[in-house]
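Protein data sheet
==================
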Amino acid sequence: MDVRQSNGTALDVEALNFGFDGAPVLADVTFSVRPGEFTVLLGPNGAGKTTLFSLITRLYESRDGRIRINGVGLREQPTKALAGIGVVFQQPTLDLDLTVKQNLLYHGALHGMSAAETASRAEEELGRLGMLERQAEKVRKLNGGHRRRVEIARALLHRPRLLLLDEPTVGLDVPTRQSIVDHIHALCRGQEIAVLWATHLIDEVAADDSVIVLHKGVIRGHGPLDRINRDAGGSDLGDTFRRLTQGSER
């Protein structure tokens, strides 16, 4: 049975708490992301976004709370749970001295894909991102926007049902940022991929996105954009974001 049909969600985070050396970083974080839903994890720098991503990808482990990916408990079945996600981390993770294609072939091998299957999927994903003609180039020669496109293609190679992107457009110019945002929204709609997109940039939020406002490790607002604005008494997202994140950052 397809686990996505068992509870209707691609990601469930329940009562998650985490800290370093006794200092809390996340407090009672609870939310879900459904297939085909683009959820923006919106928060200022230091809000706990990257820590949350590190817990979902099991770079960190919390004894408190629960994470399920496509219905599979991350603590109970980590390998099975993690196989269903694709990740673009905030820090670049491509091998600069390999070509674009070599980076993708290596990733496919890690997921147990044959070289032929990986090459076929790589052409498909690179083509969508306008990078197919660059596949023989070493990553070192690519600019920041092109490297991000390769990382997105890599994350989608094994057809994950949940895509995590942590500040994927940091340092990119506005047209490149918008192009990447639009591409991921199109994937979400067209392929029913669940997306959790972490950012501190309110202009990356679309009107029909689900939004989680995270500040100092606490969810201050969660839901459709219009409801968050209404509940916070904000005139628009910029006003709402200021209202929900007032005070000093951690």
Q: What stands out?
A: Residues 174-191 form the longest helix (18 residues).
